[in-house]
Amino acid sequence: xxxxxxxxxxxxxxxxxxxxxxxxxxxxxxxxxxxxxxxxxxxxxxxxxxxxxxxxxxxxxxxxxxxxxxxxxxxxxxxxxxxxxxxxxxxxxxxxxxxxxxxxxxxxxxxxxxxxxxxxxxxxxxxxxxxxxxxxxxxxxxxxxxxxxxxxxxxxxxxxxxxxxxxxxxxxxxxxxxxxxxxxxxxxxxxxxxxxxxxxxxxxxxxxxxxxxxxxxxxxxxxxxxxxxxxxx
Length: 233
Description:
Elements: E1 8-11, H1 17-27, E2 33-37, H2 38-53, E3 60-66, H3 70-80, E4 87-91, H4 96-107, E5 115-119, H5 127-132, H6 139-152, E6 157-159, H7 162-172, E7 177-180, H8 199-205, E8 209-212, H9 214-217, H10 222-232
Parallel strand pairs: 1-2, 1-8, 2-3, 3-4, 4-5, 5-6, 6-7, 7-8
Helix pairs in contact: 1-2, 3-4, 6-7
């Protein structure tokens, strides 16, 4: 059975090794893992990832949102396998050939295979934003289409906002991973997110894992903030 704490991946959004490592160390034992993304990876690269994760006993969610031609994405997946992420993200909008190439690359190794998660619609976007980029469909319809495409292309799960969790859980079944950002504890600031939900509501809707950043990392006491969210779950 999944424990409340193990559902939480803390998004550490900083390009600084010492700051990231300090947060990871303070949260060890309180959350399920650490998410490091483009900001950190572009600043510090694989060696920076190792510097942060080498001293903590937490799973790594490497959130790179890879999006390119199939051969390039497959090569990028192979390149990050030695870092041993538990989760790795690619954009579903790259299409089925790209997703299949990524899934094949992740499996053709003696290293532990990361679970590949496809990004559907970013939580910073809403219906009007999709219209602006030429995708004239509601967010939920686009998320459904991309989730089905990801599942049929061999991905292990998706990234989706809390607003789509219930529908995607019903359509994708119990074994497809739903990793959900846009999580805001009751009373916290929404920031640049447009489709948000409380941790407890997201889990009740069917989320497997929650990505939580600023409500923990920018709290006066990140460890206490993490404990409070676990208590809410």
